[in-house]
Design goal:
Structural class: mainly alpha
Helix content: 55-70%
Shape: globular
Order of helices and strands: HHH
Mean pLDDT: 94
Largest sheet: none
Distance between the termini: 29 Å
Length: 66
């Protein structure tokens, strides 16, 4: 998987969590998905990816544009 795939997956998770907050992905579920992504690409940065899903950083790990 490539960076574009990881971002697309995170975007879908973010969209789901906004549309269905009662059924949002849990931290544990996101962590398991992160482990899978790391197994697919050793350069995958789970902390950045999880931060992007949570909205605490941008797609590249930087600050969120306000």
């Amino acid at each position: 998987m490539t960076k574009k795939h990881f971002i697309a997956l995170a975007d879908v998770i973010r969209q789901h969590n906004k549309m269905y907050p009662a059924n949002a992905f849990t931290i544990g579920q996101i962590s398991v998905l992160g482990d899978f992504c790391k197994a697919q690409n050793s350069n995958f940065k789970a902390d950045r990816w999880q931060g992007y899903i949570a909205g605490t950083n941008g797609k590249n790990g930087g600050k969120v544009a306000r």
